[in-house]
Design brief:
The protein is mostly helical. It is built from 4 helices and no strands. 6% of the residues are buried. The mean pLDDT is 88.
Amino acid sequence: MNAMDVALICKALGDANRLEIVQMLSDGEKCGCKLLERFEITQPTLSYHMKILVGCGDGDCCK
């Protein structure tokens, strides 16, 4: 992992909602509806956050 990858991961986890999503998913898969119960966000906003998090695993974060 190079410095750019680390910087992009840090940027993604710098958002409080995304950090909490990662914490919630750390013990296994969850339905999106369970994630939405925890936050005051819409489903499209959750999808956006998930796209950012998944993109970091692809080396394609935050594009």
